Recover the amino acids of this structure.
């Protein structure tokens, strides 16, 4: 199974379970590590995430993934808070963080730029709007390689 397929399946299987527990799955990474692959989950919840939350989610997700057994390679599971530079991925995130500073990395350049830093102005009809020093950029959400808060 390819890395992007593992990531998609983890999103699909883990999101409902975490939502039931009161957590939001913010981001999923599946990358090479020093001892095999690392499956890294970033979680959030109202009021923030503690070390106990990460441990609790790690147990829940580990049991779920063991039961489903779809990851063929050896991997290490890591669960973490999203941190200050929180990934912004879903449409609801772009609405939630409107007015905050954001960094975008684009797959295809928009007006000659593949990186845009500025203030998130909004999200509508698949377009993320950012004000970068007075210049307004509209980027289709499908063109985002990466988007993070810039706190």
């Amino acid at each position: 199974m390819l890395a992007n397929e593992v990531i998609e399946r983890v999103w699909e299987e883990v999101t409902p379970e975490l939502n039931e527990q009161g957590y939001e799955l913010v981001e999923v990474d599946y990358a090479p590590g020093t001892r095999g692959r690392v499956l890294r989950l970033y979680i959030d919840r109202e009021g923030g995430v503690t070390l106990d939350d990460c441990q609790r989610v790690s147990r829940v997700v580990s049991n779920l993934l063991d039961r489903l057994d779809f990851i063929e390679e050896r991997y290490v599971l890591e669960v973490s808070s999203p941190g200050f530079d929180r990934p912004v991925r879903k449409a609801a995130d772009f609405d939630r963080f409107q007015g905050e500073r954001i960094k975008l990395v684009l797959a295809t350049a928009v007006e000659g730029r593949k990186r845009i830093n500025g203030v998130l102005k909004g999200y509508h009809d698949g377009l993320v709007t950012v004000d970068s020093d007075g210049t307004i950029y509209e980027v289709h959400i499908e063109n985002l390689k990466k988007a993070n808060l810039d706190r």
About this structure: The chain has three helices and eight strands. The beta strands are 24-33, 36-44, 75-80, 101-110, 113-124, 127-132, 135-140, 144-149. Residues 91-149 form a domain with the SH3 type barrels. fold (CATH 2.30.30.100).
